Amino acid sequence: MRKKTILWLNFLAAAIALAPFSVAQEKPAGHAHHGAFMQGGMHHAVAKGVTLDSNVDANAHSVTLRVGPMNLPANTDHMKMPQPPDLIWAVPFEGWLLAYRPRLVDSNRGAVPGTVLHHTAFWNENRADFLCPNKEEHIFGAGSEMTDWAEVPGYGYHVEKSDKIRIETMVYNPTATSYDKVYLEVQIPFVDARGPSVGKMIQNFYPAWMDVKSCGDSSYDLPAGKSTKSGTVTVKYDGVLLGVGGHLHDYGRQVVLQNASRKETVATLNATVTAEGRLESVPVKLFLQEGGYKFAANDVLNISAAYDNPTGKLLRDGAMGIAVGYFVPADDKAMAALRRKAKPSHDMAAMSHDH
Fold first, then answer.
1. Do 287 and 143 share a structural domain?
2. Predicted model pTM
3. Helix/strand/coil for 268
4. What average pLDDT score do residues 104-133 get?
5. Measured between alpha carbons, how far is 256 from 270 in angstroms, rounded to an integer?
6. Which candidate in 5, 9, 98, 146 could, as Cys together with 284 as Cys, close a disulfide (CB 3.0–4.6 Å)?
7. What SS3 state is found at 26?
8. Domain span including residue 302
9. Residue 93 in domain
């Protein structure tokens, strides 16, 4: 099996990915809070003309989602860059989403560096997150590392027809090159529930987003120099974690996931960065050969993220720290309680990150 990071990025990660050394207070889920968990209540101008296109290839059993076009002037940070509105994909089938393959392209389908993607996040508005039920279920994320979420044979993420997947995207451009008419494309292989019987044998997994900001906003201010932020979440179900990756931002050095209840380190993920500290990748740790890392209901997980910011200044909303993987519950029927009706969507296509 390909050892690709099972993200956020957040991520989103990044990415995936979410009070120093304390648990953030939970916020109630609601229309006014759409997008706030990843964006941290940021205020941005709205990028005009950005739309979502979807193309389902029934023969290849793959759907490609395309967000754009986005114009990215050189040397523009995420606070000054006009940002796409939140967009909704209504899933056109019942089945299982198997993997996510993000990339950035221009209007001629030429490659654009992942450096300009601050993060993208996909949320299922019809399900609550099993770790943080005040949030909608966060099913996919990527950051500048642009890591594929690899397929795990025999497992998939179940969706029902017309499930509403909200797509949040934030871009910036720290490079000296401007990019015009940029598109974010995410290819998603799937199995249709109406297909051959093999599709019926797929076991459900649930994305597990374990955030240093616990069940609050993911973004936080990054101080100058070395720093570490930690938070906790509590597992509410018995089950296993198939693998875990991480989502950080630039200057991020490490994500550590610990089972505080057992006093065990689940994974230590050391980031690869450039000489300037720009994030290149975050590794993955898989537990498939051991049958998964076992979680028990009421296990307390501790997540910490280490950064080294060489700029000499505070970077507002400059950091996230998320460990993210796939969770398989011991009793899948217990997860049915997480399903709910999506919020009214009459104005969602025009929603910005201005909260």
1. no
2. 0.81
3. strand
4. 94
5. 9
6. 5
7. coil
8. 225-337
9. yes
